Amino acid sequence: MSTAAHVPRDYGVTDPERALKYAVQHVAGDRAEVVEGVIAPVARSWAHESAAEVVRRQIAPRLEELGLVPGSGNLDLPGSENWFIPDLAVVPAELAVKTEGALLPEQTLLVVEVTSPSNGEPDRTVKRRRYGQYGAPVYLLVDRQLRECTVFSGPGRLGYEEVDGPHPFGRGVRLPAPFDLELDTGRF
Fold this sequence. Notes:
Layout: H1 16-26, E1 32-35, E2 38-41, H2 46-66, E3 68-71, E4 75-77, E5 82-84, E6 88-92, H3 93-98, E7 110-114, H4 120-124, H5 126-133, E8 138-143, E9 148-156, E10 159-168, E11 173-175, E12 181-183
Parallel strand pairs: 7-8
Antiparallel strand pairs: 1-2, 3-6, 4-5, 6-7, 8-9, 9-10, 11-12
């Protein structure tokens, strides 16, 4: 029997951000995100998915014209403890077909988050700020609990500089260029 003190092994984790994001992708599964360092499983209800689909269907004709595709792939925010899975993101088609891993918010043209009772506050605050800081040109927040939509644009160092809304459900919401269309929010 040894009387030597137990010395913990050094596993060489020199980059905690990378380790956390690796854990989310390989241990927590492909439907988990990291919001300010907290691993959060992504489980969406039918009502939640329905709201995202309302947006997707309304923007689909314009996306076809512009050569863009919608999806809900991973978005990495390098230098932060964040790894988001938006409810809907719009990216150039050529970028989507050749990217196996995560994209950056600045590579999107539109990010859409739909709130749920369990994730409303991060969508309203953390994601709004972070998407703007990381260059996502337009962020649409569909807030099912407050029954309103807000469009954020003009990304900057502190978040978004331009805010259009909140607009109550039932009132049209304008998406800026390159979309240039009005969303019908009456079906959320």
